[in-house]
């Protein structure tokens, strides 16, 4: 199919509006003007035979006058052959139809630039208007926190389906994203259902319009290049090189920046994301936030533990600031922000902190006087001291009896439903969850009976060993759990199954461990512990697939020597692969490279 028809069909397939098409490159009309140029060339004697016989290079130079009219000038290069003045005259080099062609094309190009600029501005305005409306409904001060969590869930799915990256921004991914939102009935859970449904529809329409606009822009860029190339082919006159210098194929702000910068910055990021406020040590919400002198912040419990271990260095920048932290370092403004925007996570964190304090009291590990941030816990320790001791003395026998009884019931259930548990994924997960809820290791129960569950997990252990060893040269011994599940999805295994199997393996070989880096879990198959710096690098690589010295410098403030040393060690161990792109060394996660292949 010729490009003219392809151009029209592509416009139709992408549902480009008629008013946009009117502002696009008129490819077929320009093609007709090329035919007129060829006719005039034949009329003045500048035929293809003459051009080929004389072995001269005919080419155009271009200038733009103050009125933005382009002025083409046809020349013959004598260096490519001996010029015969009797056969090549000025009349042959002074055409009229070529001027009309280039001026028409240039004016269409200028009009297209103006249209793209206006359309980009309109779309950006709509994005900003929508962001204001959503922000009102998801404001942390709003009494109804449910809507905020639901929009956060929607935007997390939006990012999950790669719609924030330009290379993956397509209608197929967009439709999958919308279908997933509808299947999970998220829109029906909103308190202000009608309003939020309308906003979501507007959000969807904006994405569709962005897709159309990016396609429209790309098609017109191709059309300009194609028509100039066709001019050179039909006339044997070289114009592309110098004409392309006159035309800068500028792209609008919507296409030069990623979709994440356009939509995610104005809409997705206006709903605070939990990942931005996690403590870098425990990876839970950083409540109560202690902001150190280096400006990095952590949850109070992790800071207390660092001070008790007498570790003076900040886990991120390694400045010796930890021991100087006191109550004055509590960031009250950030603490208020976290309570307003993440009430569920804050409550969970508070419960977790109180539980840790109680456990410390009961174990009587910290009887001496405390200083710095540890003094914060003194009052609570006193409050829980008597209660904890009482619970320990009066309830321990009762709890032990109840747990033994419950364990016996679970054992009988396992014997009765042994076959079902080995094949039914849902039932097996519920059974494991019940065991964990009451603090019973499911493996202890499996070992007390000739359970087929044992066979299942032993087989899974073998598969983990084989697959981990086969991939060790590629990933250095850090196997993403997600990759393992993907390769063995036909077995119907889950993350919990992998967790149980790795725990089994760790008893036989301590090198096998399940570790978490950022939001991802890995099966570790080597006996060297990762440093804090290596963990930070791997967490950063998880986001974009690669890292570089400049990224580490800009985001973490690392010196060149520190960055290069860490990256060289990780390459030597196989955690990263090196690729040199445009003179810059990029260090890739092997798992991302496999995905791209």
Automatic annotation (TrEMBL):
Residues 279-318 form the RING-type domain. GO terms for molecular function: zinc ion binding. One of its GO terms (biological process) is protein transport to vacuole involved in ubiquitin-dependent protein catabolic process via the multivesicular body sorting pathway. Pfam families: EAP30, SPX, zf-C3HC4_3. It is found in: Cytoplasm; Endosome membrane. InterPro entries: ESCRT-2_cplx_Snf8, Snf8/Vps36, SPX_dom, WH-like_DNA-bd_sf, WH_DNA-bd_sf, Znf_RING, Znf_RING/FYVE/PHD, Znf_RING_CS. It is a peripheral membrane protein. The keyword Repeat does not apply. Residues 1-245 form the SPX domain. This is RING finger protein.
